[in-house]
Design brief:
heterotrimer, A mainly alpha, B mainly alpha, C alpha/beta, A: globular, C: Fumarate Reductase Iron-sulfur Protein, Chain B, domain 2, Rossmann fold, 3 domains, 22 helices, binds protoporphyrin IX containing FE, binds iron/sulfur cluster
């Protein structure tokens, strides 16, 4: 079996399995802790609070925005860029159609791809530089956090290097890194892409009951 | 001749870097029988050729500057850039071996030199610069440095990746450079002390540290090399990325020449900067990492800034006392 | 009407003496880590697990915490205050515990001492960080767990421990018991007010707080006058009058439960429909949100902060006030425990508007208001004095930016902290209590 065959075949299925089973396992274990109920008389509906919190936290809290301009810029550029690339880059759309048998949808034009990746790169670099240069994040970050950022960076970089789509090894390298990321994902802080829902819900419910606008 | 300035550049290059095989076969004795035809093809003596193909430069049969450019690109540019970069590295090495890095005894008290944003933008610029350097070197010198080692298949892959990477990170460099410029230009305006500092070569010739403000003369020169060189690589880079922005081939040739020379100058200068920022002057790197430098370091290398800091701190504390 | 500053300074002195009065705790050094872990284990539910899992270590929470904002010291990063909890979760409870046990260090005894300083001296459980976190991590909620764990390991700071022990063993706070209460009541009766004490049945059970009895006499007087003016059927109880709950502040659950239970029992016995909490910040969540959980079943009465109670009367048109504040520009400081943790924002503002003042908001207000710096028992932790001062300086700057002539609040802790700051910096703006102002504005 050649490297290409391995990356395209067994490793891909392994990565898929680890990714989905890992995520499911992690979420199940979190939820299995159960909820300590709250017997106090609610002022308002906790449910409304949790729905609100799910969305309100996408915007900075009042008065905090001006202190976290860098986080906001970096965070939004990176995440929006990442999702746009993930969903609408032409090679990705083709991949989903071919390998996952999804119906193909309209990909973004090449110029948009380039623009979006530029923005995503700036965003990720700002976030990671902040992580290493800001005394606060330097104190609280773990090796795993750095690995998450670096791995994501490498995946994006290898994807862009393969942009000419003329060289098989570059595609395989990109795909390999994606698989590494998928295997790493459920074990790492990248899981925040799922856990943020639970966390915001819990907060929103708690303060929603108290009638505090979350 | 609309693009005479391309010639000026190429000639300038030719005088600075004389052709490597100057002793080619002599042509002035025997007249080539095909000379007339070739002269016509090249459009030297005749009106431009006509064709029904619509397109820029489509009436040009042979690019009359092609050979010159090839000679410049393959022989002079690559060779002399190599000399320049190797020369700078050797000089730095020599200096370090003979002289060693500068060091001051630490006081243990720290002062803030660079704000978080300043540090982030610095490393953003530096990171993008390094990525561009690596990919750019592969593109410019790869044929000579990488290809012989890697063989054509692997080189094709590396070259393709480098091209895409270089194109991708180019625009990021412009963003980072502009941001950096805005943050730092105020502290890099030339002052009289800088001239004095430069005459004394920053104390490298002995006689202790000459006084300097927040940035010394040497740092300011690096800043302006970076700004001007960065502007040159950026504009020429944009032209190369979007050839449709210009008319015809000549501006592209010019852009390529400017891009290469400016990039090599920047890389050479960045070697000096990186040396001084790490081994050359101990304690500098810390300032760009944590933002904090030792007071003794500040006093030794930037005494005017250090005094200003103290004045400010005093003014603040007395204001606070009065306020209460 | 103002507080007698000499009495206040005496009170401060008394606070500084507290550590000397603390008794040593029973927990032997070798069992501390286990004691901490036991609480962690019990308290981690899906909510806490989600919070711990969702944190991306972005550091945004630091930008919300007054202690970080004022010092820039990364030690004060809110999420960092939970490091032992996070470590326990990862190693012993999380989905990949087997993995993390290999790569992550266990909690050690020396860690506990370091985190004692972080969760007691430099955290007021104000919750501002919880509201800034993009991931919805409720840090303040988990600081409470940290305190409970450290309390279980006998690591409550001496000053706070002294008060907790006093309330736990004697039921008094700063030596204030039924006798002192009755003295205060008598003083009011002498001045002609009717004060119903220990009534058998009453619709409303009114609590008070040590600080009101010792220092803020006018607050108690105003409360009495307001109740009488409204004509409600109310009472104070000599065996259940203290709202303050140092069990909750210190994290020592046994004392918290006992203190809450006393009030709950009495309220049920006299058939109260409403229990009114004085202007004592933490007393509000202690009864309003935690009371039922400590009690084990829903409470058959409503719990209201006095500011909330008055506000509702005003909003419902049942209480009209004299516009005594005409022409005065004031700003209102939302006590964290009543505002951000309690949802009481509009009621006090309605009261201020009824007083006719020109009400201006602080640059950060309502659920994003900055903490006074003295909440969650910090006021009785001598080693936290430095941090309280930092928080005050921030508040002072914000108040001055509004141009307000005075700072109004509805919490004794906030008031104490502000008074200490005012005294230290010779600040010229008065600190006022909402309930006292209302007392002055009651129609004749
Ligand atoms: C909708 C779901 C997501 C939300 C709400 C979310 C939220 C966040 C937030 C708040 C941060 C911190 C930014 C800062 O430092 O200020 C962050 C960082 C990060 N996110 Fe996400 N994220 C999501 C999905 C993802 C996904 C799918 C990935 C996939 C790779 C990802 C990768 C990262 C990385 C690598 C960082 C760290 C950057 C760094 O600080 O070095 N995120 N995310
Ligand atoms: S703001 Fe929230 S996600 Fe960010 S470090 Fe703090 S707790 Fe973690
Ligand atoms: S609860 Fe308040 S004091 Fe404690 S960490 Fe959060 S913001 Fe800081």
């Amino acid at each position: 079996m050649t490297v290409t065959e391995f990356v395209d075949g067994p490793l891909w299925y392994f990565a898929l399995a680890v990714f989905f089973l890992g995520i499911a396992w992690r979420l199940v274990v979190i939820l299995a802790n159960g909820w300590r109920g709250d017997l106090s008389r609610p002022r308002r509906s906790g449910l409304t609070g949790s729905v609100r919190a799910l969305f309100s936290r996408f915007a900075p809290a009042p008065g905090i925005g001006r202190r976290i301009g860098l986080h906001l810029t970096g965070g939004y550029l990176f995440h929006l860029g990442l999702f746009a690339l993930l969903l609408f880059a032409a090679p990705h759309v083709a991949f989903y159609a071919e390998r996952l048998s999804l119906p193909a949808w309209q990909p973004m034009p090449h110029w948009a791809f380039v623009l979006v990746s530029e923005l995503a790169f700036i965003g990720l670099m700002l976030l990671w530089l902040n992580r290493v240069l800001n005394p606060v994040t330097r104190l609280i970050s773990s090796t795993g956090d750095h690995l998450s950022s670096i791995l994501t960076f490498l995946v994006m970089l290898s994807g862009c290097l393969a942009l000419e789509q003329a060289h098989e090894p570059l595609r395989v390298l990109h795909f390999f890194l994606v698989e590494v990321l998928m295997i790493y994902f459920p074990f790492s802080s990248l899981m925040h892409a799922f856990t943020f829902v639970l966390s915001r819900e819990a907060l929103g419910y708690r303060y929603g009951r108290r009638g505090v606008p979350v | 001749m609309r693009h005479w300035w391309v010639w000026v550049w190429l000639c300038l290059g030719a005088t600075l870097f004389p052709p490597v095989h100057a002793a080619g076969p002599s042509t002035d004795k025997v007249l080539n029988p095909g000379a007339e035809l070739w002269n016509e093809v090249r459009g030297r003596q005749a009106a431009p050729a006509t064709t029904q193909v619509q397109g820029r430069d489509s009436q040009v049969l042979v690019n009359e500057w092609g050979e010159h450019f090839r000679d410049y690109r393959r022989q002079r540019f690559v060779r002399y850039s190599g000399y320049l970069l190797a020369g700078v590295v050797s000089l730095l090495l020599l200096y370090h071996l003979l002289h060693g890095g500068l060091e001051v005894t630490e006081s243990g008290r720290k002062v803030l030199r660079f704000e978080l944003t300043e540090r982030i933008v610095h490393w953003l610029l530096a990171g993008v610069f390094l990525l561009l350097t690596v990919t750019g070197v592969v593109l410019a010198f790869g044929r000579f440095v990488v290809l012989p080692w890697s063989g054509p298949e692997v080189f094709a892959v590396i070259a393709s990746a480098s091209k895409e990477g270089h194109n991708l990170f180019g625009p990021l460099f412009i963003v980072a450079l502009l941001w950096f410029f805005v943050l730092f230009v105020g502290r890099n305006l030339p002052r009289l002390v800088d001239i004095y500092w430069l005459i004394r070569a920053g104390g490298m010739l002995g006689g202790g540290h000459p006084a300097a403000g927040f940035f010394n003369g040497g740092e300011k020169i690096w800043f302006w090399i970076l700004t001007i060189g960065g502007l040159a690589v950026s504009t020429s880079g944009v032209v190369l990325d979007f050839p449709a922005l210009v008319e015809g081939r000549n501006p592209l040739v010019l852009a390529l020449v400017v891009h290469g020379i400016a990039a090599v100058v920047l890389i050479a200068a960045s070697f000096g900067h990186m040396y001084l920022g790490t081994l050359g002057v101990k304690g500098s790197l810390e300032g760009m990492k944590s933002g904090l430098v030792d007071e003794a370091w500040a006093h030794a290398h930037h005494v005017l800034w250090y005094e200003e800091l103290n004045r400010k701190a005093q003014a603040e504390s007395s204001a606070r006392e009065q306020g209460q | 009407m103002a507080v007698d500053m000499n009495v206040f300074r005496g009170f401060l002195q008394q606070v500084r003496q507290l550590p000397a009065m603390a008794q040593p705790t029973e927990c032997p050094d070798t069992e501390r880590v286990a004691a901490v872990k036991a609480v962690f284990k019990e308290r981690i539910d899906a909510g806490v697990a989600s919070h711990l899992e969702a944190c991306v270590h972005c550091g945004i929470c630091a930008e919300a915490c007054h202690f970080f904002v004022q010092t820039g010291d990364p030690q004060f990063t809110p999420i960092h205050k939970l490091e032992p909890l996070r470590r326990f979760y990862r190693r012993e409870k999380g989905p990949f515990a087997w993995l993390y046990r290999l790569i992550e260090r266990d909690i050690e005894e020396t860690d506990l001492e370091q985190w004692q300083r972080l969760v007691y001296d430099s955290c007021t459980e104000c919750g501002r960080c919880s509201f800034a976190c993009p991931q919805g991590v409720d840090i303040a909620h988990m600081v409470v767990i940290m305190r409970r764990a450290l309390a279980n390991a006998g690591l409550i700071p001496a000053g706070l421990r002294a008060v907790e022990q006093e309330q736990g063993s004697q039921g008094t706070v700063f030596g204030v018991g039924p006798k002192q209460l009755m003295a205060a009541v008598e003083a009011l009766r002498v001045r002609g007010y009717e004060v119903p004490v220990d009534k058998d049945k009453a619709d409303v059970l009114v609590l008070t707080a040590t600080t009101d009895i010792l220092l803020f006499h006018d607050a108690m007087e105003s409360t009495v006058r307001i109740m009488n003016h409204l004509g409600v059927d109310w009472t104070i109880h000599t065996c259940a009058f203290e709202g303050a709950n140092f069990g909750m502040l210190s994290g020592y659950e046994k004392v918290q439960k006992a203190a809450s239970e006393r009030i709950i029992r009495e309220a049920i016995r006299c058939g109260a429909k409403v229990v009114i909490i004085p202007e004592c910040g933490h007393a509000y969540p202690a009864m309003r949100w935690e009371g039922a959980n400590e009690h084990g079943e829903p409470l058959p009465f409503e719990v209201m902060a006095i500011s909330e109670f008055i506000g509702r009367q005003v909003m419902d048109g049942k209480l009209s006030l004299k516009p005594i504040g005409k022409g005065r520009r004031v700003t209102y400081h939302d006590p964290c425990k009543v505002g951000r943790h309690g949802g009481v924002f509009d009621e006090p503002r309605a009261v201020l508007d009824a007083l006719g003042v020109e009400r201006v908001e602080l640059p950060d207000n309502r659920e994003m208001n900055y903490c006074c710096g003295g909440g969650a028992g910090l006021f009785v932790i001598d080693t936290a004095e430095r941090y309280r001062a930092l928080a005050f300086d921030l508040k002072r700057k914000q108040v001055e930016a509004t141009g307000a002539q005075s700072l109004i609040t509805a919490c004794d802790s906030c008031r104490l902290s502000f008074l200490a700051g005012t005294d230290r910096t010779q600040w010229d703006r008065p600190i006022e209590s909402l309930v006292e102002l209302v007392g002055q504005a009651l129609p004749d």
